[in-house]
Amino acid sequence: MTDHPTGPDHPHDLVGIGIGPFNLSLAALADGIHGGLAATFYEQRHAFHWHPGLLLEGATLQVPFLADLVTLADPASPWSFLNYLRARDRLYPFYFAERFHIQRAEYDAYCRWASQRLPGLHFGHQVDAVRWNPERGLFEVDFTQLHPDGDAEALGRAYTRHIALGIGTEPYVPDPLQPLVDAPAVPVVHSADYLDHRERLLAAEHITVIGSGQSGAEIFLDLLRARPAGAEKIHWLARTEAFAPMEYSKLGLEQFTPDYTRYFHALPEQVRDDLVPRQWQLHKGIDAGTIAAIHDELYRRTLHGGWPDAVLTPGVTVRTAGRVATTKVELHLEHGRQATRTRLTTDAVVLATGYRERPLGRLLAGLDPYLRRDASQRPQIDEHYRLALDPAVTGSVYVQNAERHTHGVGAPDLGLAAWRSATILNHLTGTEPYPLPRRTAFTSFGLEKRDQTRPVPAPRGLVPLTDPR
Prior knowledge:
By secondary structure, the protein is an alpha/beta fold.
């Protein structure tokens, strides 16, 4: 991958917007294309950071270390996690540690190592607008170079044949919980900022954690371990029917393969929309080890009699919320199965309510006349991860982790990062710098379409359905 001064007469082949793990994967694989790819990537932050507020001590990834930036597309890449260990003289310690799932802090450090060495990455650059220039047949990307204090230093424009959007997700606060965020006198934080506020949260007399996913479970466990036995004063609330384990069976995990992604993409739009919410346990459940650790900690606190002052209640929604005086929050709760309601007063709240895809509307306003949308007004995205645009636009806009509605629950999964990046680069170059396997799962998703004019042989011992008998 090469970076060069850009202008309408010397455009980039690719401009990446955002430098999270997915566009970092794209940059790493682009760097390995022989003959060079003129590519540059812009990120408004001044350095790479991956969920810093959730890098709890000992917390691990929920995917194996092979789900790094490159390995599942190019195991020989110099940007692999194993090569990172080699560069840091840590291969043998890792070998003897026998860790298949690495700590989140280590993954964050690995990505930062790659981000500091890959060419063509520009931090402190905020992309403001993207337009298509039909006269030149190029995209125009306007950006602002930012001073470390956040002030604008300079304006710039890049020209490119193609774009890759990797702007990631943002913390999500459901509407009924929004008043909590507007209560500055009470510590109410999203789990994304947990570590920044941990000491203030621990100082609160009573704490409520809302959300039953992995983040909610890890935060509940961390708070529980830090509170004195018998005086924990923690509520853990969840909408789900139970504090359920994440699907982690070997065949279940095949729903995070390219085979399943292709199957899902080919389904009708309404079928896809109905399917995604039902698959919550694939990505919103809790790691079984974390569930066990929570139970162990609660059990340990019963050894000398009594029960811990911790309330774990699933099946509950927060209808409304508001301040009480200036130092407390009142949550209005409803239990769906019981059809009962109650109130809970608390001194601090952690919202482990997940993330949502960042809206593309502001960034892509200049492309809106060319953009094709589905029945729900979402961007249509093809099998190559391209936005469906008017044929007058000869360049491609690829998306990373903005395609759950078209590609399924695997969109934010790190295990599909290298595959998606390789798919994008293969399509962009019109060649195949990264040959990809045709089959990736033992499961056959869906029925194969057969020639209906030819009889299908029946298995031995069975009577064909078309047999006249």
